Amino acid sequence: MLAQERHAIILDMLRERKIIKISDIATQFGISNLTARRDLDILQDQNLVRRVHGGAILMEQDALLAGRSAESHARPTQRAEIQTIGKLAASMIQSGEVVFLGIGTTVLEVARHMHHLTNITVLTNSLAVINELAGSGNTIYVLGGILDSNEHSISGRFAVDMLGEFCADWAFIGCGGVTAAHGLSDYYEPGAAVSHVMVKNAAKTVLVTSSHKFNSDALSIVCPISDIYMVVTDEGISAPCRDELNQLGVKLRMVQTTDEEENAER
User: Fold this and answer.
1) Coil, strand or helix: which one is 208?
2) What is the pTM of this model?
3) Could you tell me which residues come within 8 angstroms of residue 186 by beta carbon, excluding any fewer than 6 positions away?
4) Could you say which architecture CATH assigns to the domain 3-73?
5) What is the CATH number of domain 78-265?
6) What pLDDT was estimated at residue 5?
């Protein structure tokens, strides 16, 4: 079966169940958890699903119920936007600083643009970030705790306690949702607890996320929006959301991408 056919069936399963687990996909198609995770990552890049702990939920459900295909919803520039968000965020870090890095695709893009930095100290619970920066020559603290094999992250009491012993110049985190009423939230409570401590112990916290995360809540609250120093996102963020950030004193940086120039910033 072609990957595209598998993706279409996954979307059909989501229309019926509203949420799907990586293990369900692996069992349904006789594939590995890694392949199932990659399928969901691709669908998320197309803005069709939102990854949550151990699986995914539907995005843009009204359009999906209208019967449009995954191809019709694909955003060719979304991957470029995430890369540009990561690059812009990483440009704020100076050599010699201490940095908290959370989990998620966009935070990983921050790490991918940190290789030129020297004499930095990184604390992270993301296996992907650890692998990315392992050969950078910088000091990497790996948070101890419970390994989540689905999210490739470490969390739990030990991770929170260890992180609580450190302060940082910067924290770069993602989220599951952002609203004015409840602030930043995430779908995985243990991961949200780690993010909460990162925000608390960092001099400046930068939220790096795609604009579609705004105006929706996830399961566990991380912190109020006012605790964030800056949001780095794409131009899809709505005018009301921009106004709310401005009223709360949160800086906003937006990136734009075009076919000719994927690193323009406004």
Assistant:
1) strand
2) 0.74
3) 175, 176, 177, 192, 195, 218, 219, 220, 222
4) Orthogonal Bundle (1.10)
5) 3.40.50.1360
6) 84
